Structures are given as structure tokens and as C-alpha cells.
Amino acid sequence: MTEITKQSLTELVESIKNKKLSSSEVTKAFIERSEKSKVLNAFITEDFTSALDKAKKFDQKPNLDLKLPGIPMAVKDLFCTKNVKTTAGSKILNNFVPTYESTVTENIWSEGAILLGKLNCDEFAMGSSNETSFFGNVQNPIDKNLVPGGSSGGSASAVAGQLTPITIGTDTGGSIRQPASFTGTVGLKPTYGSCSRYGIVAFASSLDQAGPMAQNVKDCALLQEVISSFDVKDSTSIDFKRNHYSKDLTNNIKGKKIGIPKEYRVDGMPKEIEDLWQKGIEYVRDCGAEIINISLPHTSYALPTYYIVAPAEASSNLARYDGVKYGYRANGENLIDMYEKTRSEGFGAEVQRRIMIGTYVLSSGYYDAYYLKAQKVRRLIKNDFDEAYKKVDAILTPSTPSSAFKIGEKTNDPVSMYLNDIFTVPVNLAGLPGISIPAGHDAKGYPLGLQIIGKAFDEQNILNIAFAMEEKINFKNKITDWWIK
Amino acid sequence: MSKKSEEYLINRRDNQYEVVIGLEVHAQVLSVSKLFSTSATKFGAEPNTQVSLVDAAFPGMLPVINEFCVKQAIKTGIGLNAKINKRSVFDRKNYFYADLPQGYQISQFKDPIVGEGKVIIDLPDGHKEVGIERLHLEQDAGKSIHDLDPQNTFVDLNRSGVALMEIVSKPDLRSPDEVSIYIKKLRSIMRYLGTCDGNMQEGSLRADVNVSVRKKGSKEFGTRCEIKNVNSIKFMQMAIEYEANRQVDLIEEGKTIDQETRLFDTKKNETRSMRSKEDAHDYRYFPDPDLLPLEVSGEFINKLKSEIPELPDDKKKRFINEFKLSAYEATILVSDIEIAKYFEEVVAKMGKNKDMKLAVNWITGELFAVLNSKNLEITQSPVSAKNLAILVNLIKNGTISGKIAKTVFELMLKNDEDPQKIVEEKGLKQQSDPKALEELIDKIINNNREKAIEYKQGKEKLFGFFVGQAMKASGGKANPQLINEILKKKL
Fold first, then answer.
1. Is the residue at A251 inside a domain?
2. Measured by CB atoms within 10 angstroms of the end CB, which terminus of chain A is less buried, N or C?
3. Any idea what DSSP says for residue A325?
4. Quick one: pLDDT band at residue B453, thresholds 50, 70, 90?
5. pTM of the full predicted structure?
């Protein structure tokens, strides 16, 4: 039998259901590998002892009808987990232990999965390299000193490094798809309203979505099936008919119309990205899909729009971290002094930058010029997609404008960092589903991803296209386990 | 239609000033749970015992609108003759304070649930229309307690997230008295609707008062000051009085009035500057992305319309038309829904041959006096409507005199006893048999021959003496009208 941690989720589920493996064996294997992988810094909080206990309990009375029977799983530290510290990668929540469980993780545990621990991420999910985390950088298993992307950097690193068979991240502007692309893994950002936001530390409420990150498309489909649910506790949750994404998965995409948006051919895009895109187009054509050139005319406005809307919402969402009720509190002379010290010491530089941008764009006198205008442009961006979807079933683009970069390479240049999200951000603004799949390597051998964007609530379709492409691409991640001595 | 009551003007040397007042009333929605969470709203609970994770703004917690509160706001809007907006939006009003856990208050800014409406207020010599600008739903904040500890402030989040209706009037009010009448009317309407208990002691109803002054006859508004969070009608009146005079003094001294937010110090009876316009908070309002726009259908609104009870204005009209009450009497009886209910029950219990005037007099006279002296609400009345109706009927049909009725009423107060029974047991039935009364009067005249002669010689005052004697001899039970008639005949 293949080494346990090398198995996909689907294989592990199969093995446990066939009683070839016990939950304890599987859990132990991932814990052992995680213990040897501390240098990746993927975990903020390990919950290994408790995981082993739960695995033992599961094995004593295994319920094999569940979708994730006894499967150990680490999750991004943005999901509140009952009685397990939840930090959002921030000093300000360094001591915060929720008394409640997010709906998404609740869905996972009720299908039999077991929490391994909480994964590193950019502070409050603000970042594209996992370098803004209070708990330090995360190493990309692909290469030493390479960022795993962000904000779900710990999640991507943990899946690629096989510290967890599968995981969940959150995606506000690309935080699932970009790190998936940087680590040679699969990441799905579902339609806004598909997965409940209840119990997820909020960054930008109108953009945030939880989603699965996996080794392959089938695993991704299975986890999406588990986490997506209508939730009355989230007023933006949408009650629509959800597929059995893994059961309904097919590689038959014959006749599907795939749009290629010309505006995604941005200035200065490396040739290898362009080549990858062309290869992707060939793959879907080989699968019997039809390629149609389309236009999304407002694409170039997406990034500036995003960097108004997201910080605006964040500046308000993060107001609750004030030292009064929970989390970090600095001593102050008076209330205002306490606020200022708590927030200055508790938040990192990037979070403070975004709070200030957000506060500025919402200020009276600037609201109309920035926030209101951004909302109008957001509507135009959505209209672009609506128009396109009259002609096509899905859209194929690169996931990122480059492969993973070195740690520290962009930390002093926020704009260059923000540009990383150029292909992913429009999808969040339009509330659509998007999936990144590994599609090739650059000259250095670093993975590159392609993104398939779907119609709202049409996750099944983009999963099918990804599934079909995956077969053609036959991608192999080049991971040497360099960090394991 | 509307007549001007006596104008409230502030006089200085040659100038007369008119006071212009607009109110932002904060009315707590009568609801068992909060606007966006399921926590209880009961008043007076132990601190921080009615707080959910949502109210305390824990990470990842999301607001979910309470449909009942929406219904209450719409009903109130209907009661204010206002436009109900089928689409409204919840916004975040951002500011930092220890008792504001989210760091923002969820309110409605640009698109409130209720638009323009009007309230009719009854003045001593007519009535007046007060315009309503809007009504919107918002969350209350928690409570900061500064006086429990010299070093620390304590925070009680029981109120945090409780639903409030902010009812904004147009600047249509012109005197402290009008403000008092307006608030009472608003409260009355909401109590009829069951949308706010209007209990000012418990903070269910409080107001920000906007005051400006202008020379009499001027069409332009003066610069206004906003007096924050005044929680009794008396204080509102005192604050307006003080503030208007302060502004007039400034103008008279040739100074300008700064637009600012002020506080009313109830101990010193003065308003004090809280913050100037320059220091005003920038609340950075924006639509709350956690909540979708609130959309209600015409059907939904119509259903609520059909549930609206008869409101004070309509009830008053009906009392005047149906029961032939004076406008004054009707106004008093409809001012409080419970009083109106009591009155209508008395009317119903009096049956066919009823004396409406007498019933009104007994309710607004004897009964109100008892309630006032014992500090009781009408719902706690020691005399039930049914028994009061019986008492009024006993007077009406001559069984007892008005004077005896007062004695009976006193006895009824103990155990809400049936007046009929009291009259029978105590033998208080009125003597209306002319023969018996004639005999009685003959005896009195015989015993007071000299006085009878004096009377005949013109000392008319003595008539009262004879009436008194007759009443005394009958133990107060003689029918006074008959006594009068017989005496006149015999003397």
C-alpha cells in the first residue's frame, strides 16, 4: 500500500470504509509527518492529542456511512473552532478560544472528520504570501524560502506537504486559488452564499467565501459537497439546490463553451503564463469543448475596486477588536488610549494599512468618490460576466500572473503584492465560483495554475471541466521533502 | 381647521422670538427578543445575562433580522399615517465606544423602513398636524456604568442589540407644551398598536431634542442645537425652555449660535456643550454587507394594516359621534388605550338605558381621583368596569342619590364589591315614596314652627336648613329632588 500521507482523500475514505486502514492509523501518519515538518510553519495550533483520542473513539464505533469517516483534517485558523484557539493569524486574537463552532467546520465534523489543528494564514486573511501572519512565514513545500501564497498559505502548504489530506481555506480576493496555484494544489472558491460565513472571522463580508483545498479535483468536489449548506444564521447564505458534487463529477465536457477573456492578457505577463494558458486552451479543446473569445471590458478596474471595497468592509469588521471584550488588551490611561495602544500593538502593519484605507474611503466627503463609485464599478464587472455567460458556460484564465515568489521579495511593495490577485479578484467581486488547478511548471519547476470561472451556483460545471483537464494535464508536483531531515 | 393656541414666545426688549423644535424619538420596540439576535429584552435583568455571542460581537458572528421587529416598525409607520418603504437598507454607523461591542451600530441611514407621515396633536383650542420625517430601525447600545468603581467603568450589554425605532419629526413644534402633547400622542399611538410600551422610566422612550429660535414672523430657521438623550417629558420641557432662552440671549448680545450637540444637566437645569459641529463624529455610514436589503411585499404590508386596531383619532371621532361626548371628554378617554378600553366596557355593561355623561363624570372624576391618589394605572383599578357601570345605573334609575353613590363607591374600593349588594345590605336605597317623605317633612315643619314662619317672611336661606333636616332624618337616603318639591309645596 502507498504511504498513507501520499494517498488522496478519496483513497483514504475508501481505505477506511474497506477497513484497510483505521482512523487512528491515518491520523497518526499525518501527525507524524506534521511533527517532522515544523519548519514549514503550517500550523498555528496543533490539536494532535485530541485528534488521536477522537480517532480512537471513531475506530471503536466507526460510522462508515459518513462522507469523511475518521479523516483527520487541519483547517485555516480563520474558522472558529469550539474550545480550540482561533487566532486569524493575529496577535490581537492570540489568546482567543471560541465557545462555538463555525457552520462550515461543523458540517465537516458531522461527516466524521477529525480536527488536526489550525493552519497558518495571513493576518485576518489580508495578504498574498502568508507573510503578514503574527505567527511567522509559512514555507512552500515546493522550495525553500518560497512563499506558499496567501492568505490561505498554511492550508496550501499543509495540503501540498501532505500534513493534511485536505483542508479548507477562505477566499476574499484569491486567498484559496492563488496559494493553490503556488503550491500545485486544487482550490475552489464557491459562489458567494454557497458556504455559510457563520463563525468565520470576517475580513470583507460581501466577498468572503470558504472553500476546499485538495490534492485533486475529486477530493475538492467531495469536500465542497460537505461544506456547502444553506444556513439561517448567515443572512447572505442562499438556499439553492446543491449537487452531490463528487458523485455527479464527470469528465465529459463535450460541447461546453469555454470563454477566453482578452482583457486577462495583461501587460508584462510572463511568457510562460501565456504559454500555460494556451496549453490549457488546447486541453479543453481536446476534451471536446468549444473555445470562444470573449470580452470582460471592466477587468482592469477590478483590482482598484477590490482595494476600496475590501478595506472599507474590513475597517468596520475589525472595529470589534478593541481590547474590551476578548483578545489582546494593552493598558491605557483611559478608554481612547487603551484602544489606540491595543490596536497599534495588536494589529500588524498590513492590517493597519487596510484599516486606514478603509476608514478613508468611507469618510464623509470621500464616500461618493471612492466607496460608492467602487460599488458601481463592481456592478459593471458583474454585468460583464452576465453578458459573457450568455455566450459561454465557463471562462478559462491563468490563476496568477506569476509563479510563487521568494519570501521577502514583495513585502516592501504592497502594490506589487496586490497585483498578484489580478485574475482572482474579479470573481469575488462578481460573487462567482472559481477553481484553480495545477496545469504546469515554470522554468524553475514551480507550479502554475489555471483558473476556471463558472456561473453562479454552477460549481458542478467548473468541477467537471477541472476534472477533465486534470486528466489531460496529468500534473505531478515536484516536491522533494527537502524540509524533512 | 387648526386654530392657533396661545403662542409661546420669548420676549426681549423690542423683540419677540419663536421657538422651533423637532424631535428624534427613540422608542424601544416591544419584542421579546432583540433586533438581530434571539436574546431576551426583559428590563431589569442582572447585568450581562441577556447577551448572545452576536450582541457581544464575537468573531464570525452574524446578525439575522427579527421579523417581528420589522412588523412592529411597519405597524407603527401605519399608525403614523406614513409611507411604508417596500425596500429599506441597514447601514453601519461606525464609532468606538466601550458599550458598542461591534464598533458600529446597525441602523438605517439613506433608506429607512418608514417614510413621511403625520401625527395630529390636540391643543387646548384646536388641533395641529406634526409632520413625521421618517422612522427607522436600529440597534440600541449597551450601558456604561461609571459610578460603581472609582477606577473602572463597567459595561452591561443587556440592552446591546435591542430594537429601537427612531421617529424623526419635522421642525413643526413651537413650545414645550406642544412637545409634551406630541410625545404623549406618539406614546398613545404606539401603546394602541402594542409596538412600544412607552415606559420612560425604563428608557423605552427617550428623545434627542432639536431647538432653534427665530424672530417672530421670520421664515428662515435659526441655527439649531441638538440636546441629546432626554428621558422625561418634564426634562424635555425644561431643556427647551433653558436652551431657547440661551439662544435668544446670544442673539440679543449680537453673538452667533454654534451648531452643536448639547447635554441637559437635570440637576443644574441647564444645557451644556457636548461637542461642536467640527468635532462631530464621522460615522462612515455604509450598507451592512452582512444583511441583504430588507424587502417587504404589498401583501405583507396589507396584512399588517388589517391587524391595526382602532387608533386614538378614530376612536375619538367615534366617541363623539356615537356617545355624544364633548371633544374634551373624548380626548381624555382615548388618550390611553387602557382607559378607552375601560370606558367602553363600562358603556357596554350599562346596557340600553345608559347615562353616558354620568359614566364619563364618574370615570374622569371619582375613579381618576382614586387612581391618582393611589398611583395606580387604570388596569389596576380597584373598581371593575362592570361594577362601575352598575353604580352609574343605580344613580341613573334613582335607586341611590349621587351623594349616596359616593359612599357606595368608597365601599366598593375594598373588594370591588357589587354596588347593588352594598346598597341592599347597608339599606342605602333611596326613599322615593312621596307619601312617606311628606310625613317625614310634616314632622320636621311641626318641630321647627318658628323657622318655618321666618322662611315664609322671606328668610329664604332657611330652605337649605329644612332640606338638611329632611336628609338627616332619612339617613341621607331621601330622594333630594322629591324633598325639594315637597318642601316647596309645604312651606
1. yes
2. C
3. S
4. confident
5. 0.92
